[in-house]
Amino acid sequence: MSDRPKLAVYWAASCGGCEVSILNMGEFFLELDRHFDFIICPCLLDTKKTDIESLPDGAIDLTLFNGAIRTGENEEMARLLRRKSSLLAAFGSCAIEGCIPGLSNLSNRDQHFQSIYLDNLTTDNPDGIIPGGSVSLPDGVITLPEFYERVLTLHQVVPVDFSIPGCPPEPRQIRQVLEAYLAGEPPAAGSLVGCGDLTVCDDCDRVKCDKKIPVFYRNHEIIPDRQICLLEQGLLCIGIATRNGCGAPCTQANMPCTGCYGPPPGVQDQGAKMVAALASVMDIGSTKGLSETEIADRVDAFLDAIPDYAGQFYKYGLAGSILGGRLRE
C-alpha cells in the first residue's frame, strides 16, 4: 500500500443507505482514491477479516462504522476495527442511536425467532428448525454468529472518537469530515459533525403560531399546507425534539421530520422530550365540569390517533435511550 491515509467503511446492522450517501458525494467520491487508500468496504471491496487482523494496531487512519450491534460478529468487528483504527467514527443513526434495528429491542431473541422461523405464514419449516450454532462441511466448519438479546449502539461497545448523525448522513457532512482530515484538522473528540445546537424547527421556514392541536392525522390522511407548521396542522413532526443542521429537507418536501439527527443538546431522551412537547400543545377542549375519568378519556382519544408510540417517538433512538427497549421482568 502507499503512504496515503488508510480509510475504512464498515457496516454492521444497517441497510446500506450510508454507503449510498458516500456515493452521493458525486465526483468527490472519485477523488478518494487520490487521497486515501480505501481498504475496507464490504459492499465494494473483498477485504477479508484476516487482512484486517494482519494490520498493525492503529494502522487504519479513519474508520466510518455504520450500523448497530445486533450479533456477535458485529461486536467482534467493532472491537477489531477500534483496535486497528486511529480514529473511529459512529457513522449514521444506526451506529449512534440504534435507529430502525434498535426497534427490535421491543421483543426478545426467542420472540424474534418464533415469529421469523415458526409462525411466519410464508415460511415452510415443518421440522421447526431454528438456525444457529455450527455445522461441519468438507471445506471446514461454518459457525453462525450469536444473535444478541438486545441491539446495542456502537458507543455502548467501544469508545467512539466522533459521530456523524443522519439516516443517512448528508454527503456534505461526509465530505466535510474527509476534507478536514486531509487538512490535518479532524473533528474534535466527542463531537457531532454536521449538526447544530438548536432544533429542526429553527431550520424550518414554515409559519409557526401558538400550537394548540385538537387532533392528529396520519401522513396519508391529509395534504398539508406547504406554508404552515406541520405539527400545527396535526401531523406528528418530531422537529421540535430533534437536533438541527440537516436543513429541514423533509419539511421542505411537505413531510414531517421523523427525528434522524437525534435529540438536541441537553436532551438525554428524544422520545421523552417529544412526549413532553405534545403534552404542552394538545387541545382536548374545555375540561370545565369534567371528572378525572372524562378528562382521561379525552386524552386517550387524542392519543389514539398515534398508532405506534415507539415507532414515532423512538424510531431512531430506542437502543440508545433511557428505556433501551423492552422492560425486563
Structure, explained:
It is a single chain. The chain has 329 residues and is of the alpha/beta class. It has 3 domains: 6-101 and 148-192, Rossmann fold; 109-147, no CATH class; 200-313, no CATH class. The protein is built from 13 helices and 10 strands. The chain has helices spanning 17-23, 27-35, 49-53, 72-84, 93-97, 99-102, 109-118, 171-182, 200-203, 249-252, 270-281, 292-303, 309-313; strands at 6-11, 37-40, 60-66, 69-71, 85-91, 134-137, 140-143, 147-152, 162-164, 191-192. The strands form 3 sheets. Strands 2-1-3-5-9-10 form a 6-stranded parallel β-sheet, sandwiched between helices. Strands 4-8 form a two-stranded antiparallel ribbon. It starts with 5 loop residues before the first strand and ends in a 16-residue tail after the last helix. 36% of the residues are buried.
Helix content: 25-40%
User: Nearest-angstrom radius of gyration?
Assistant: 23 Å
User: Mean pLDDT, nearest integer?
Assistant: 92
Name of the CATH homologous superfamily of the largest domain: NADH:ubiquinone oxidoreductase-like, 20kDa subunit
Globally, the shape reads globular
CATH class descriptor name of the largest domain: Alpha Beta
Strand order of the largest sheet: 2-1-3-5-9-10
How does the helix and strand content classify structurally?
alpha/beta
Q: Under the CATH scheme, which architecture of the largest domain would be assigned? A: 3-Layer(aba) Sandwich
Overall structural domain count = 3
**Within the CATH hierarchy, at the fold level, what is the topology of the largest domain?**
Rossmann fold
Report strand %: 5-15%
Q: Which stretches are poorly predicted, pLDDT < 50 over at least 5 residues? A: none
Number of separate helices = 13
Give the topology string: H per helix, E per strand: EHHEHEEHEHHHEEEEHEHHHHH
The end-to-end span amounts to 53 Å
Number of separate strands? 10
Main beta sheet: 6 strands, parallel
